[in-house]
Amino acid sequence: MKILIITFMMILSCVSAFAWQPTTVLTKIEKSGTSFTHIPVIDGANNEALEANANSILNAVAADLRKRVGRDGLVDYKVTLNRPSLVSILLSGANSKGEKFFKPVNIDLTSGKEFSLNDFLQDGMARREVMDDDFTDILFGEDGVFTAKKKYDMPNTFTTYEKLIPLMRIGEVGRLIPIHRITDKVEGKVLNLKKGDMFAIQLKSNPTTGYRWSAQIPGGDNIPEGEKGILLVGSSFMIPKDTPRGMTGVGGYEILFFAAREVGTYDMKMVYGRPWEGNAAASSLNFTVDITNN
Fold first, then answer.
1. In which residue ranges of the chain is CATH 2.60.40.2020 found?
2. Among candidates 139, 88, 86, 90, which has minimal Cα distance to 110?
3. Distances (CA, A) of 122 to 19, 118, 274
4. Residue 4: Cβ within 10 Å count
5. Fold of 21-169
6. Most CB atoms within 10 A, among 21, 23, 29, 114?
7. pLDDT of residue 240
């Protein structure tokens, strides 16, 4: 019995360890005459049926590009985003005529299907204010998204995740963007980050009272946004899931998103107050952010 229990615990431990690992992408090589096709193949996903569906999509795109490049060509790929359940791959084809074709594929391994911006954004109309909404293909990368206006064109119009974060659903953003999440327990402590990291602080709030959280970011308001060491990139409000439907005036959690832009040590202060009262602090907390190069 003890052996069975120990074995079971080891299995649970292994499953937990693998749950946060990047997705494995293998390469299947096919040759036809002087034409080579490198097909991406996802392996090791938690659900074999969803994995098979994802690989079917990738295989179909590779076959389409192979047909377009003809007998004398090469189809290859590059992984541009790799998360535990999200993988973005740019497949490309080229031939001796100098013709090039591109096709991005963004796979969600929780569904076995392709995903898009609409799966993460809560306001499609507001998206037009931060990026060109006229595109046919989109490719997700480590720091943002690339779009192409014409099918088979190279996605080269870039929009950073920083610009998109204010539009994203809180429950989904963590799947796409690595974000260090903190709460009021950060009071008096140090948050260690690398340059380029993002972090979000979740604090109790009730905006119906007029009170909101604001950040006093070191450096002063006269410093241009692009030059600040720490930049507030967006905020959102979340109501607890157990809140009865139709109930108004209830409190929840305000979440503020920040980007670590420059190396340094910053003493930050969060203030809970009413803007028309000069944000006189009804509550506040202080913590330090230490940003390094690596």
1. 178-292
2. 86
3. 27, 7, 26
4. 8
5. Heat Shock Protein 90 (3.30.565)
6. 23
7. 65
Contact at 8 Å (CB) between 255 and 200?
A: yes
What's the confidence (pLDDT) of residue 1? 46
Cβ neighbours of residue 32 closer than 8 Å, sequence gap 6 or more: 66, 71
CATH topology (fold) of 178-292 = Immunoglobulin-like (2.60.40)
Rounded Cα–Cα distance for residues 102 and 153 (Å)? 6
Give mean pLDDT in consecutive 10-residue pieces for the chain, a chain of 294 residues: 39 38 90 92 93 97 95 95 94 96 97 93 75 91 94 94 80 84 95 91 90 84 71 80 57 88 92 82 91 88
Q: How big is the chain, counted in residues?
A: 294
**pTM for this prediction:** 0.75
Residues 139/149, Cβ–Cβ less than 8 Å: no
* CATH 3.30.565.40 placement within the chain: 21-169
Rg, C-alpha atoms of the chain:
23
For residues 5 and 105, give the distance between their C-alpha atoms in angstroms, rounded to a whole number: 42
The secondary structure of 71-139 as a DSSP string is SSEEEEEEEEEE-SSEEEEEEEEEETT--EEEEEEEEETTTTEE--GGGTBS-TTGGGGTS----SEEE
Q: Tell which phi-psi region holds residue 51, choosing left (phi > 0), alpha (psi between -120 and 50) or beta.
A: alpha
